[in-house]
Write a structure and sequence with these properties.
By secondary structure, the chain is an alpha/beta fold. It folds into 2 domains: 144 residues, Rossmann fold; 204 residues, Dehydroquinate synthase-like - alpha domain (Dehydroquinate synthase-like, alpha domain, Up-down Bundle), CATH 1.20.1090.10. The chain contains 13 helices and 8 strands. The strands form 2 sheets. A 6-stranded parallel sheet has the order 1-8-5-4-2-3. Strands 6-7 form a two-stranded antiparallel ribbon. A hairpin with a 5-residue loop joins strand 6 and strand 7. The N and C termini lie far apart (46 Å).
Length: 363
């Protein structure tokens, strides 16, 4: 199997990075169709008003990434006559622009306004149905031509989003390492490179070293070196690590949780964090490692109990729904270096919840 890795063409991060947007876009074209999350449109008006080298067509939208929203966005971009597509917002707005740009074979620029997942750097768009359930993963032809993060903007978002991004990034090492040990395929059609696995490892180590302080800084809306390092880990390092290293049980369990209507109010990274913790009970893992991850999740404010993601650990029917979706044929949970069954997933979720209860009582 060939070794493969893919990356965004250009990555820009820092305080005031939005001031460079006009110059950055001018590298790619002259007319940009800007898809803006309606919730943050007012915050972006000053930056969008300063463009002089590139003409901007701005369209405020609600956060959704469905087949319908992608088709409607592509039609709007075509009408604009744009030669660049830019998405400003969270994961669903980003993915809508990503998919529409791919349909039209146009350069794509990603400007996250929150850091709730590692989606910005990837070539992956998650398509949902109208009820908010994951339908499929759509792989576009290339990674973004530019990812631009203004830390002054992102630190103003509710800390819950930043914490969810940490939860998503936490999975990166554990899933990439599972794929490495299983000789499983990554998301770009081959085996991970040494660079991808080291990016995943550095992502984990950076989170453990800086994320607790970074969350406190985020709550105070202060951009610090800890916040900056954690943001890079959650967006760039996790983006490279998950895509070029591979994904496994944690995200499969997320997909299962997403099939429960009770979980639709939760963020992606919150459900992924539960997937990470449950994955530590699918095989024998040193208790020191389990304690390290549980302690970390508690310290940054990620869920560690099923009730925190609106699941009753005694609800066998709900757990069966999660396990069935997680273990369906061809699912990424089968990238683990051992066979995984639905019964194992149910047992892991219950064992994880009991462990968390015991861990809480000892703390």
């Amino acid at each position: 199997m060939l070794r493969t890795s893919i990356f965004p063409s250009r990555y820009v991060q820092g305080a005031g990075a939005l001031d460079s947007l006009d110059a950055e876009l001018s590298r790619l074209g002259t007319r940009a169709a800007c898809l803006v999350d309606r919730n943050v449109a007012a915050l972006l008006e000053p930056a969008l008003a300063n463009a002089s080298q590139v003409s901007l067509e701005v369209h405020a939208v609600d956060a959704a990434c469905t087949e319908r929203s992608v088709a409607a966005t592509a039609a709007w971009i075509r009408e604009c006559g744009a030669d660049i597509v830019v998405s400003f917002g969270g994961g669903k707005v980003i993915d809508t622009g990503r998919a529409a740009a791919d349909d039209l074979r146009l350069p794509f620029v990603c400007v996250p306004t929150i850091a709730a997942s590692d989606a910005p750097c990837s070539a992956l768009a998650v398509i949902y149905d109208e009820e908010g359930r994951v339908v499929r993963d759509r792989f576009v032809r290339r990674n973004p031509d530019l990812v631009l993060l203004d830390t002054r903007l992102i630190v103003r978002a509710p800390a819950r989003f930043f914490i969810a991004g940490i939860g998503d990034a936490l999975a990166t090492f554990y899933e990439a390492d599972a794929c490495r040990r299983a000789y499983a395929r990554n998301l770009c059609g081959g085996r991970g490179t040494a660079l991808a696995f080291e990016a995943a490892r550095l992502c984990r180590d950076t989170l453990f070293a800086h994320a607790v302080q970074a969350v406190d800084d985020c709550r105070a809306q202060i951009v610090t070196p800890d916040f900056d390092a954690t943001l890079e880990a959650t967006v760039l390092l996790s983006g490279i690590g998950f895509e070029s290293g591979g994904v496994a049980a944690a995200h499969a369990i997320h997909h299962g949780l997403a099939d429960l209507p009770s979980s639709h109010s939760l963020l992606h990274g919150e459900k992924v964090a539960i997937g990470v913790l449950a994955s530590l009970f699918l095989s024998t893992v040193d208790d020191d490692e389990r304690q390290r991850v549980f302690r970390f999740c508690r310290a940054v404010g990620l869920p560690t109990r099923l009730k925190q993601v609106n699941v009753d650990p005694e609800d066998s029917a709900a757990l069966a729904v999660v396990a069935k979706r997680a273990c369906r044929a061809g699912e990424i949970i089968h990238n683990e270096p051992y066979p995984v069954s639905e019964e194992m997933v149910v047992a892991a979720l219950r064992a994880m919840d009991r462990y968390a209860a015991k861990f809480d009582s000892l703390s």
